[in-house]
Amino acid sequence: MGVPDSLRGRVIRAGDTPASILNVPNIITIVRILLAPLFFWMLLADGGAYSPLRWAAAAVFIVGIATDSIDGHIARRRNLVTDFGKLMDPIADKLLTGGALVCLALLHELAWWVVAVILVREIGITLYRVAMLRDRVIPASRGGKLKTVLQSVAISFFLVPLWTVVGDWIHWVNGALMTAAVAATVLSGLDYLLKARQGRSA
To answer: 67 with 39: CB under 8 angstroms?
Structure first.
């Protein structure tokens, strides 16, 4: 028995007939998740050396992150927004960005405290969103989206060995971008906690 047209792409609530999960945006999200292991291997395979494999790893990361806006645009334009997509899309982002941060720390190119701050926030907010699934799915906030953009840009600059092309001064740019990403990560996390507290007291 097929899913009624009126329910396709709907954000489902308790008691609704589930919408189709296998739509184009969700397939893109799944592909992004599957890209993560390939990216990790390419980045770590030769010890992070600034070889063609390092450039390829950076390209895979950038493509994986860039498709985030593509699947979201398709989902909204074609009315294919689902609870699965709302939950798994941020998880795909966190898998790529979190894995990239850990890999950079393993390669001694990024301080572990930066990784710890970002991962604690990401894992904590993700667990909170999962815990709230019984009541509602919590989409990413504007602050959360800005945080994701800053993290993606900062990590991309760390991954691409631009210093081999333009010189060591680019490290200052990398540091400034990562500082902004950490600040946005902390502030957006506090915003989530504040809204959660207000929601419980309402």
So the answer is: no
